[in-house]
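Re-run with default settings, no changes from the original entry. Doing this only to confirm the output is reproducible before filing.
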Amino acid sequence: MSTLSSAARAALALAALGLTLGGCGSLDRLSNVGKAPNLSSIEDPTAQPGYKPVRMPMPNPQPSSYAASSLWRTGSRAFFKDQRAQQVGDIVTVKVKVTDKANLDNETKRSRTSGDKVGVPNFLGAESKNLLPGSDPSALVGTSSSMSSEGTGSIARKEELVTNVAGVVTQVLPNGNLVVEGKQEIRVNFEVRELIVAGIIRPEDIEADNTIDSTKIAEARIAYGGRGQITDVQQPRYGQQVMDIILPF
């Protein structure tokens, strides 16, 4: 029985490493060759692994007071029922508008030149003759140095994202602010585009049509990406990602 060559053993080791890194994910992708990626099911965000309620500094709670024989409640924003989001489970539309543009140029130049010349025309009475044959007493020592450096750098970036996404109120903070989270998935051919928006909003910032600008969201978390065939091609292979992490050079 012949033993495997070193090249064959290396190939088997790489294959085993690929299977270990890929795991069930690779088998699942192989079983879905030629099929469009499935959309995620609608789930309760608060039931997802890793979900944590938002904790923020809160003012002291103020008890509600009612005036006798009055149709108004203290703190009420309208006489009729407000159709805007105000409690857990309500829906609010977030108008996402992210426009980021930056142009930075930096250029640095530095140079320095110096020179020194030292002579010894008179040294212990040896004015009439040179200390060294063929030397000039007025220029026995001379030094010079030169240094220059130059650096340039530039950054040009332009990003723009304009869309709407409906979010769900997941928590009402003690001061009345709302924690919202929304997720949108759009499948185009074999690519799924995902948009995730989360943050804290004030009920006063919600407009009459139950919409709010993303610029008015505190602790905003906005993510836009995708998954599918195009994303797979754009991502490095598992082996390359591992080598990028462990290689020190």
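Residues 80 and 207 are 16 Å apart (CA to CA). The mean pLDDT is 78.
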